[in-house]
């Protein structure tokens, strides 16, 4: 607890003195006699400034004065602190304070300043510095504002009177502690008589009961907030409030009509949609959801109804096929009921409605129908062609009862085993049947109306082929029987079984025995095990592989069919060398051994003879391979107009086997041996002939002239030899790249012209070149000489 309580009273007196009264309680050393009177030299009035001053002159705030100031100008007043000089100014001589700017309390409510009196000459303080506050006095210059507006709100329809909707709040920036500038009251400007607002709290409530959303679902209110407690001169602000009535289930579903009629074709498939109908409900969303039911009618099980969740329609669909000839119309009673019923609105009436629906079935031309749709027949696989198996029947369901023709869909009977009578539907065999190949035939029978061939009905016929005993039994597998040489008498060496493609109703029963040809077999015996198997046993021991390595045992198998069938199957038994455990080690024929008395020398002699014969045969074959084919044809042929083409290409300068380059460069030797055989009239066919160039200077010719001369010589030699074919002495010479030893044989570089080129000399070469002379003589005026020369050379090479 405090030791004393100090009460400070600040009083203003005309003589500018301030009394300070201090009352000290609970302390005995203080008493009322200790009151002191202190005199201060500062004198000023309490300072207040109105905000939003709009005058042109500075606003007078107050006056500072000191007892030291005698009015002789020796005291100067100085003002410092917040807003000094910028907002507040002071007269240095008089101490008057003025505000030079417009003040706003909402920006700053007070200013703290410091005042001091100083000597005007020495600037020495004559009074202590004092602090004072200039308060900005509020005026009503701010209107109320809705900081959260505009507002949106919702309230359920049919709400009772006074239901709260939303609360609005306005804020006034004026001083709430001074006057009524910030005291706000609310009122509704627009929205009556549906809603009201509480003046002090701003709570909006419904002003009418049972407002219906289906009549009007939205209201826009204008709310006003006014300060000065709503008195004249107060400022105001407004905001909008959008109020939406939310839906409740207060409306039952209703059909627009009491009866509906729909038509449907009798051919529509299940589950096709027959009709759609909808009961209207003024509510929305979940309040408008409904279920439909068929509650009565003469179509039990034929139709059903469900709800389309997107459109809330009742969808009537088909559950069973329709038949115009059986029933042509149906009557239904449909009920629509709300799913979500609000108990507080049950007094509004039943939330369901009913309507009558009539469905008319329209007749269509239907295809014939088989009775029954699937028919099962049986036939023996021994049935002869033309045997009647059964009959199918179809009828036209329409009232016209058109005549029907039957046929088989051949895609189901590709091999045409069966026929059907087009008028009666009788099915018969068309080919011999084999149950083992196909035991069941699945046929599709077509029934076509005579009046409308587009109407085709389909029926199924399953024909099962009954088995007869037409297959003899055979071994179940290919048996490989191995017999050890040391087998004991009576030992089982193989157990056999049989299979039969037939399927007798009572199952298979096979009988095994040795064939008649093996009935006196001394090596093996057969035992029928009476369970469709048989065992093969040995009769003696000491089987010798060297004596006989393979035994063939014929086995007779008879089935139990009627009539019984049999077959003879051969069982191969191979004699093997076995170890002590009876596991075969080597089977079959024993390797060849040398006869007794044959010496090693004799054996070597035999091997030598064999090797000699092989060497002779190899030599003969090698000689036959190296033998060349004859150059001349065996028979006489007329080859004058035949052109034989050779596509051989020489190896160029790398080819040293095609020809001898030395021989080509020493042509004088060749010419000496051959020139006496050349006809003298052929010497002038080429510019570089023997008459024009000396043989002694032949080696000095350019390489290309050397090759050309050589080729022409070979042509002349061939010409004078009537027995030589045109390709006898043909050789191909090629030139590759610069610097080739062989050079080029091309005639593209020959310095010839049209005037120099003549082909008359070809006629002098004999009958074999006459055709070339005629050919190139005709072309002489059409093509350039270089082209003809190239073609000529090419032809000569081929010849």
Quick take:
This protein has about 800 residues and is mainly beta. The longest helix has 27 residues, at about 600-625.
Characteristic terms for this protein:
mainly beta; 4-stranded antiparallel sheet; elongated; 5-stranded mixed sheet; 799 residues; 6 helices
How would you characterize this protein structure?
- The chain is mostly beta strands and 799 residues long.
- The protein is 10% helix and 31% strand.
- The chain has six helices and 42 strands.
- Strands 35, 37, 40, 41 and 42 form a five-stranded mixed β-sheet that branches. A four-stranded antiparallel β-sheet has the order 1-3-6-5, with no helix packed on it.
- 19% of the residues are buried.
- The model is unreliable at 1-41, 665-699, 733-740, 749-755 and 781-788 (pLDDT under 50).
- Contiguous low-pLDDT stretches (5 residues minimum) are 1-41, 665-699, 733-740, 749-755, 781-788
Structural class: mainly beta
* Helical stretch tally: 6
- Provide the β-strand percentage band: 25-35%
**Computed Rg:** 68 Å
Shape: elongated
Per DSSP E runs of 2 or more residues, the count of β-strands stands at 42
End-to-end separation in angstroms reads: 150 Å
Main beta-sheet strand count, sense and barrel state: 5 strands, mixed
The residue-averaged pLDDT reads 77
State the helicity in percent bands.
10-25%
Domain Cadherin: 66-146, 147-255, 256-370, 371-475, 475-586
Keywords: Calcium, Cell adhesion, Cell junction, Cell membrane, Glycoprotein, Membrane, Metal-binding, Repeat, Transmembrane, Transmembrane helix
GO molecular function, one term: calcium ion binding
Pfam families: CADH_Y-type_LIR (PF01049), Cadherin (PF00028)
């Amino acid at each position: 607890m405090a030791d004393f309580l100090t009460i400070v009273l600040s009083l203003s007196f005309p003589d500018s003195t301030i009394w300070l009264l201090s009352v000290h309680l609970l302390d005995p050393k203080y008493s009322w006699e200790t009151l002191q009177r202190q005199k201060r030299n500062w004198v000023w009035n309490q300072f207040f400034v109105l905000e939003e001053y709009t005058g042109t002159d500075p606003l007078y705030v107050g006056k500072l004065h000191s007892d030291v100031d005698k009015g002789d100008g020796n005291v100067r007043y100085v003002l410092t602190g917040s807003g000094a000089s910028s907002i507040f100014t002071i007269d240095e001589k008089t101490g008057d304070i003025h505000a030079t700017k417009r003040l706003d309390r909402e920006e700053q409510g007070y200013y703290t300043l410091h005042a001091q009196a100083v000597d005007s000459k020495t600037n020495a303080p004559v009074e202590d510095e004092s602090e004072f506050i200039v308060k900005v006095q509020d005026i009503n210059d701010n209107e109320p504002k809705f900081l959260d507006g505009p507002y949106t709100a919702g309230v359920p329809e049919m709400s009772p009177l006074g239901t709260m909707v939303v609360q609005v709040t306005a804020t006034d920036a004026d001083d709430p502690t001074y006057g009524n500038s910030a005291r706000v009251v609310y009122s509704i400007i627009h929205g009556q008589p549906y809603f009201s607002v509480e003046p002090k709290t701003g709570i909006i409530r419904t002003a009418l009961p049972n407002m219906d959303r289906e009549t009007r679902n939205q209201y826009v209110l204008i709310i006003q907030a006014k300060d000065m407690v709503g008195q004249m001169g107060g400022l105001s602000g407004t905001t909008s409030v959008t109020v939406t009535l939310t839906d409740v289930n207060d409306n039952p579903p209703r059909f627009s009509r009491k009866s509906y009629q729909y038509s449907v074709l009798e051919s529509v498939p299940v589950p096709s949609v027959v009709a759609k109908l909808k009961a209207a409900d003024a509510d929305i969303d979940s309040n408008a959801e409904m279920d439909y039911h068929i509650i009565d009618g003469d179509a039990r099980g034929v139709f059903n109804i469900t709800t389309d969740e997107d459109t809330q329609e009742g969808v009537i669909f088909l559950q069973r096929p329709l038949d115009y000839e059986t029933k042509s119309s149906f009557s239904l009673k449909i009920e629509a009921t709300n799913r979500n019923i609000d108990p507080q609105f049950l007094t509004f009436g039943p939330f369901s409605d009913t309507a009558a629906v009539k469905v008319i079935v329209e007749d269509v031309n239907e295809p014939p129908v088989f009775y029954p749709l699937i028919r099962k027949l049986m036939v023996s696989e021994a049935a002869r062609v033309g045997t009647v198996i059964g009959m199918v029947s179809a009828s036209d369901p329409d009232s016209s009862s058109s005549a029907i023709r039957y046929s088989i869909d051949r895609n189901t009977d590709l091999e045409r085993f069966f026929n059907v009578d087009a008028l009666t539907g009788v099915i018969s065999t068309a080919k011999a049947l084999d149950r083992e190949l196909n035991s069941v035939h699945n046929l599709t029978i077509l029934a076509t109306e005579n009046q409308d061939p587009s109407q085709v009905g389909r029926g199924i016929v399953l024909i099962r082929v009954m088995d007869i005993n037409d297959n003899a039994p055979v071994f179940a597998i290919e048996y490989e029987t191995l017999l050890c040489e040391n087998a004991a008498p009576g030992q089982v060496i193989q157990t056999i079984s049989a299979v039969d493609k037939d399927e007798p109703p009572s199952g298979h029963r096979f009988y095994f025995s040795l064939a008649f040809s093996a009935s006196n077999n001394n090596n093996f015996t057969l035992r029928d095990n009476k369970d469709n198997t048989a065992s093969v046993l040995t009769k003696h021991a000491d089987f010798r592989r060297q004596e006989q390595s393979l035994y063939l045992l014929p086995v007779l198998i008879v089935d139990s069919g009627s009539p019984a069938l049999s077959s003879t199957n051969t069982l191969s038994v191979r004699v093997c060398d076995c170890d002590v455990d009876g596991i075969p080690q080597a089977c079959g024929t024993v390797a060849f051994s040398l006869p007794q008395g044959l010496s090693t020398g004799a054996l070597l002699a035999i091997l030598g003879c064999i090797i000699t014969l092989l060497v002779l045969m190899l030599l003969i074959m090698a000689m036959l391979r190296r033998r060349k084919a004859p150059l001349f044809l065996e028979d006489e042929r007329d080859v004058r107009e035949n052109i034989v083409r050779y596509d051989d290409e020489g190896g160029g300068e790398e080819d040293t086997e095609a020809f001898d380059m030395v021989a080509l460069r020493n042509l004088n030797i060749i010419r000496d041996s051959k020139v006496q055989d050349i006809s003298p009239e052929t010497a002038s066919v080429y510019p570089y002939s023997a008459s024009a160039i000396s043989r002694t200077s032949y080696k000095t010719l350019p390489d290309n002239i050397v090759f050309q001369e050589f080729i022409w010589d070979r042509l002349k030699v061939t010409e004078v030899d009537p027995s030589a074919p045109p390709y006898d002495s043909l050789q191909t010479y090629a030139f590759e790249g610069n610097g080739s030893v062989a050079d080029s044989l091309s005639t593209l570089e020959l310095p010839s012209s049209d005037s120099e080129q003549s082909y008359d000399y070809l006629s002098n070469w004999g009958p074999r070149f006459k055709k070339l002379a005629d050919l190139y003589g005709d072309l002489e005026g059409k093509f350039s000489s270089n082209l003809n020369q190239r073609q000529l050379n090419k032809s000569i090479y081929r010849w």
